[in-house]
Amino acid sequence: MTPKMAEVNVTGKVISPSRMAHVVLRTPRYEAMVAFYTAFLGAHVVVRTPVIAFLTYDSEHHRIAIAAVPGCGEKVRGSAGLEHIAFGFGGLAELAAAYVQRRARGMVPVWSTNHGPTTSLYYQDPDGNLLETQVDNFDDPAAATAFMLGPDYAANPWGVDFDPDHLVRRLRAGEPEAQIKRRPVSGPRAIETVPIFNPPPPVVRDSYEPIEGAV
Ligand SMILES: [Fe+2]
User: Fold this and answer.
1) Ligand 1 centroid vs 42 CA: distance in angstroms?
2) Which residues pair with 56 in a beta bridge?
3) What is the pLDDT of residues 135-158, one digit of tens each?
4) How many angstroms does the Cα of residue 133 sit away from the middle of ligand 1?
5) pTM above 0.70, yes or no
6) Which of 86, 129, 183, 214 is in Cβ range 3.0-4.6 Å of 114 for a Cys bridge?
7) What are the per-10-residue average pLDDT scores of the chain (215 residues)?
8) CA–CA–CA angle 180, 134, 161 (5° rounding)
9) Order of strands, edge to edge, in the sheet holding 64-67?
10) Is residue 94 situated within a structural domain?
11) Does residue 215 belong to any structural domain of this protein?
12) Does some domain include residue 187?
């Protein structure tokens, strides 16, 4: 229920947003970034000018905007700021199917891991911005939090890595999603072993259309 202005307690807790609305990325390679995000998210361009494009994939009028800001330089590795943007999927099969579809378009993850609370595949866009695609491993957020407060997570807050093709094979074989989503027990893990903190150079493709023979 939205409060009326007269009812607002100015010194009370600040009213939280109702949702995360969109992300705007500045880029030195406008064409490639628009093509990448359109393909990566199964999105469409709502409005496009020579310098900014607005994309969406749901009921929001735009979720991602790409801006060709004059003078924009390359992304600086190691600078402060946004680490990654995460996109949630409705189920493990959807997440894995989107992986297969992206792979067919030349987009492959730089890291695949079971964090415990989520099963996650990480990608890089053409500028090197990191994107997470994830599915919740627990139906109840409280159960996810409980896992993150437990001993396995304390020893390894990063995740237990997996081969996404193996994930696809397990799903195709009919293994229950709940079983696949359970994070295997592991020992301690150092931050230096986490690929997204030292990712390979980003790949820029001429096209993000399906590649013949890639499926
Ligand atoms: Fe994340």
Assistant:
1) 20
2) 44
3) 999 999 999 999 999 999 999 999
4) 8
5) yes
6) 183
7) 81 95 98 98 98 97 97 94 97 98 97 98 98 97 96 97 98 97 95 95 95 78
8) 55
9) 23-26, 64-67, 52-56, 44-48
10) yes
11) no
12) yes
Q: Using the mean position of ligand 1's atoms as its centre, give its distance from the Cα of residue 85 in Å.
A: 7
User: How far is it, in rounded angstroms, from Cα 180 to Cα 147?
Assistant: 16
Domain edge (last residue) among 43, 68, 93: 68
Range of the domain at 121: 84-205
Residue 215: predicted pLDDT: 65
Q: How much distance in Å is there from the Cα of 91 to the middle of ligand 1?
A: 17
pLDDT value of position 26? 98
Cα 84 to ligand 1 centroid, rounded to whole Å: 7
Which position has the token pair 């307690």? 9
CA of 194 to the centre of ligand 1 (A): 13
Q: Which residues contact 54 (CB under 8 A, 6 or more apart)?
A: 45, 46, 47, 48, 61, 62, 64, 65
Query: CATH number of the domain that 48 lies in?
Result: 3.10.180.10
Helices (H), the chain: 30-40, 92-103, 141-148, 151-155, 164-172, 177-181
Residue 55 covered by a domain: yes
Residues with CB under 5 A from ligand 1 (ion): 86, 132
Gap from CA of 82 to ligand 1 centroid (Å): 11
Ligand 1 centroid, distance to 124 Cα (angstroms): 13
Question: Into how many domains does the chain fold?
Answer: 2
* Distance between CA atoms of residues 165 and 111, nearest Å: 13
